[in-house]
Amino acid sequence: MKPFRPLTLTRPRPENGEPPSKKRRIGSNALSVGNRQPLNTMNNPAPAQFLPPGLEGNYYTVLWRKHTTKKNKTWDGDGVLAVVGGYATLNDSETGKELGKGACSRPLLPGSTLSIGGREIEVENSMDKADYLSGRMFLGKVAAAPIQQPKRPEPGHKPLLSVKPNSKKGQETADDKEIVPEYKLSAYRKQQFKAPLLSTTVMPQRNPSIPQPRHDPNAPNALIMKRPDSCPKGKQIVDVVVDPVLSKHLRDHQREGVQFLYECVMGMRCEGEGAIMADEMGLGKTLQTITLLWTLMKQNPIHDSPPLIKKALIVCPAGLVDNWKREFRKWLGNARVGVFVLDAKNKKIANFTMGKSYNIMIVGYEMLRIVQEELKKGSGVDIVIADEGHSRQPDASEAELEKGEARWKELVSLTSQFMIRRTAEVLSKYLPPKTEHIVFCRPTKGQAETYRAILGSPTFRLALGSTDIALQLINVLKKVCNSPSLLKSSKDNDDTPSEMLQSIIPLIPSKILSSSASSAKLRLLDSLIHSIYTTTEEKIVIVSNYTTTLDMIERLLVSLSYTFLRLDGSTPASKRQSLVEKFNKTPKTTSFAFLLSAKSGGVGLNLIGASRIVLFDIDWNPATDLQAMARIHRDGQKLPCKVYRFLVQGGLDEKIYQRQVMKMGLANAVVDNKASASSFSQEELRDLFRLDEREGCQTHDLLGCTCECRGKLEDTLGATNEQSEEEVEEEEYPMLRKASEVNVEEQEAKIKARRAAKQPKLRMLMEYRHIDTKVLKGMDKGADEGSAEDEVVDDLAVAVDDDVFLSVLKQPECNVGFLLTKSTS
User: Fold this and answer.
1) Is the pTM of the predicted complex or chain greater than 0.70?
2) Do residues 46 and 72 touch, judged by C-beta distance below 8 A?
3) CA distance 619 to 451
4) In the listed set 138, 159, 184, which residue is the last one of a domain according to the structure?
5) DSSP assignment, residue 155?
6) What segments bear the compositional bias annotation Basic and acidic residues (predicted)?
7) Which domain, by its residues, includes 123?
8) Of 589, 699, 703, 693, which Cα lies nearest the Cα of 655?
9) Which of 123, 221, 496, 788 gives a 20 to 30 Å CA spacing to 594?
10) pLDDT digits over 302-359, tens only?
11) What is the 3-state secondary structure (H, E, C) of 490-549?
12) Residue 412 belongs to what H/E stretch?
């Protein structure tokens, strides 16, 4: 119950305004007083409304809570109360949110209570205006200032002055002269509204009668396309200018490529409408394609005509679908163009064909076969981009292949009109230097023993008479070059029949088959990655054509406790791009190595997180190896790149490499797996399977190079040309013959043909430095500083151009026999 409060009796105020009458004297003994003048009548001023000076306002820290009927009430939170212009606004201290607003025309003191916005408020302390405007009270508790009784000056009247007994009449106190700074509203005005539109997607208003290009052709570095020769009657030609959002990122060769593609697509270079971009890896074909599509989608050289294309289709390998989508987002963002990705999760192709939200569709080659009929619905597709088109190899019969060989010259003359081809040399001024090492590893005793056992088996004799068995035997020997232990794997049913393995495995000692240490390549890889991990902060990519080989390398990394990621044929396409991004963005402690299958991920991926790459085995098709090597030497790479190609010296690896260089027809036959018996002669097969266990390098011997194998680049091409005729003569005339038995003209024609075919291949290998590791190890033993031997060691170090690999080569247990190295630095 509420406590009882007695009533307070108040006397009514006099209404007549006269002074109260004098009281009669009660007693005669009352004190007598002197005569006084009557008081003057003065009317009290009307109560003035409480307004702070200049409407500056007062600010308080308060406690607030919602209305409640509880007996023991608690406060819900702290707040800030601003009293300005007769209105009080309550804000929460933690969030700054406005909790309520109401009228307040009376001064507030500590302990004062009021109700605003359905909340009970109790004033704690006052607050400085500066603290309120700065917002510091919403960041933490503010030290409370002692509250002062607010002054209440009357508008239009001079305030009453307090007069002290000893002061002069009318003298003002210091408190009355307090100056309050003026509140500047201009400093807190809201900024002007800005339209949320992109300047590159909204055309400014111009005179429609005068043709104006979409972008300024006079801007610095503006890329302007070629004008057509004619236009329809009544129409005008306008310049097509590439969007500066893209053109500012294009390099010189890319600007040239965009212009070439535009002219070909517009039919300005040839009768058809299309182009082939055959640039080497890393030249930015994706960015050039995106620039072309964006230009065609937004512009037309004919004024007041719709854009040239509305829908575009990009077809690529399944592993590159996400990469294409990411590239569009990188260069154009999400607001400019709609990109539709057709995959297992998103199969509503009508969103692209019937809708207007998507302009570009990205699909894999396999998925395209399923949806090709649905793409014909709706408005159709205006342009098709086929990425990695070289991987689409049509099945052809022998007659068709023969016809194609006969017509290739005419084909070259026709395609040259709409095909552009640039090499990686144009990137030399943009990318860091690259060093390529072709490493010839001497086989271990276990590998050599396994090799000889297979060549002495009945399977080898059958292979000489059967092309199919020969191809199967090639796959077996390639695995022996990687590691004899791979012959025991059960995952090789796709390339090697189990019957052949069952006939070969009993010939090989079980100790060799069960040990990965019998692999010369794996031993070298072990030393190399250990040196890279312990001496640098770089990361490495390891590429192989076989998943069983990747399994073996994975076990090696696990034994060394090195972190790694892996991408092969079993990796879902939806997860491949995330693996690549994780590898590129994380340090080596999270992902030091990236295991990559050359067949599944050797095309189109951007692995710039690594600066070193190892090709553990070699492929018959040189394009496969070149694609794999280009994964790290691309735009965005900041470190010098090192490429290592591992070969078994004298084994099948070296023979395959020789045929890559010589560009013989044997490679194509093995790639297609459809070689006929006429593709291989018995002598070619014997040479292919032969194990050369000599000390020297067979590849270097075939060059006929006279260098000392100390890593010096010499112009030996002329000397080799002079000796080539003598070598051919020795080969053609192994014994003395009668002059009547020799057809001189026929022999001379063969010599000229072989010499002409050999020189381009020879020139390619002469770009490498030739290094015999015996010279390196022999010269490194106690050579005095400044001596001739020390100078040779320095020359070899410059030739290798790789301190980490040089330290591996100097190790006594290193099994590298020969080295071909080439650097762009």
Assistant:
1) no
2) no
3) 19
4) 138
5) T
6) 169-178
7) 53-138
8) 699
9) 496
10) 988 999 999 999 999 888 888 899 899 999 988 889 999 987 676 788 889 888 889 9
11) CCCCCCCCHHHHHHHHHHCCHHHHCCHHHCHHHHHHHHHHHHHHHHCCCCEEEEECCHHH
12) helix 408-415
